[in-house]
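Task: fold both queries, return tokens.
Query 1:
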Amino acid sequence: MKMPHGLCFAKDGTLFIAEQNRILAYANAEEHYSDPAVWAKAVVAQGTLIPREVESDVHSARVCRVGPDGKLYVAIGEPYNVPPKDKEAEFVRLGVGAIIRMDRDGQNREIYASGIRNSVGLDFNPAHGTLWFTDNQVDRMGDDIPPGELNRATKAGQDFGFPWYGGGHTRTNEYMDETPPADVVFPEIEMVAHAADLGMIFYTGAQFPTDYKGGIFSAQHGSWDRTVPIGARVMFTSLKPDGTADKTAAFAEGWREPDGSYWGRPVDVAELPDGSLLVSDDKNGALYRIAYKAP
């Protein structure tokens, strides 16, 4: 496999693995995981998730989810910090810088949401069925701009503003003189700049206190494009009764040394059946389990 970053399950037990430019499906993965010859079906053949001429090692970690409609949703990052103007229209047509969806056999692919620079985390709100996703924003604009994003897509066809906006309401230098789409959807939460917001999930468990149920846990990988490093933590975002975001705060941190260097880099979060939280760390090749015990 090449960059097998995205993992997601369908209700029937099929495991999908989103690689850089292919999607594999393993039927009944939990039943057959111990078989070294377990059979994989390529629902999107190698080199066809995106055109090979667009394939790049920049922003190429794909993530996936199976939505309430039974379709497969996959985030496709832009292959540039900010795309050249002569390439943007073609990228939109190809579904690059977007979240695409398709039938679980790879057929009937379409663009679900566009104007996305590099989403490496998405999940559906089980209470409302809406798609939420993180988005990593433009580098080299300064220490404190532009903000990272936590976004909410309420329907198909919404545009989230990139490349006219580099993050939040901050315009990019390259597209400053261009007129952005009139109906841009701005983020529910503006995260601190350059923290690299990656994986996210809605918490549905019962182990943590009730204030956490229905909220969002998300991982910040940590900055590189910042004088004083920030991130390397897990955030929690609460929601209002109407399903919009309320406020966000650090839930777990301490992966940064006093001098700002990182001893760990959180990448993704997942919930175990007992309601505890898993956090992956690609600096140490580790999984951490965070559990709650009532006093």
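Query 1 returned. Query 2:
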Amino acid sequence: MKAIAIREHGGPEVVKLVELPDPTPGPGQVVLVVKAAALNHLDIWVRKGWQGLKLAFPHVLGSDVAGVVEAVGPGVEGVKAGDAVVVNPSLGCGHCERCLAGHENLCRRFAILGEHVSGGMAEKFLLPARNVLPKPENLSFVEAAAVPLTFMTAWHALVARAQVRLGETVLVHAAGSGVGVAAVQIAKLHGARVIATAGSDEKLRRAKELGADEVVNYETQDFVQEVRRLTDRRGVEVVFEHVGKKTWEKSILSAGIGGRIVTVGATTGYDPLTDLRHVFFRQLSILGSTMGTAAELVQVLRFVGEGKLRPVVDRTLALADAVKGQALLSERAQFGKIVLEP
């Protein structure tokens, strides 16, 4: 089978279209024929590598996958050949207290498909049977692949961690990104007022179409001043933060007294300054959040199936164009998700 893999960490040149053996399912496993695999900034970080990340090379990239079950291994129940499915990219051990309680993203052995273990940016994908869920019938495979990682991340951050409530105001950064697109919709689904930021007027226009109530161009406007203007100087109840160093200090200033800042990533850097005076005096809560649970993905897929949440696909590319897709992500040249079709 053909796959997008790396054999070492580095720049775009290490990403190769390679030929790998077709997988065979073992006990509890399934093999998918991949119909679509979406890109994430995570693919770029994995390609570059970081201290402590240990991979078995060749490592296949790709966390977001939709496809058709080709074969099932011994002991698999509830999934059969021919099923159209979407992949849950979260991997817990399945045996510890946290996994058994349904909090697999808190498992000490937690892993993400495509990050810690090989993913599904390939013609075929071997994975645990428990990690496949029925594809909503109203979605194409391309649309389905645009859902899991970003919508799980935004749902867990806003609903489970920040506990967004009806009538609150939520500041969503980089609303044109995959996770930003999800966060705008999830905040609106829960009755919040959304202030969305983006780096171009076209992205802001599209964010409004997704439901954002107010928009701010962070390249031409000071988003702290705009947040204060739009909230009568109170600040927002929730900041959805995934940009990192470039926005962090101003995100703290944008939060109102008793506000919650939930962080799910650090695209522009992980070591910003934090003025603790603002944190303790204004009684802010800083909440970390990673991925989500299988139950949360089931909820997301139900709302997607009902049309209350929708994936946004910027464009599709051939599997061999993965490097081009990564370049587009790095340049912030997309709105929503870029999806590869083997």
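Both queries returned. Flag for query 2: The chain has eleven helices and 18 strands.
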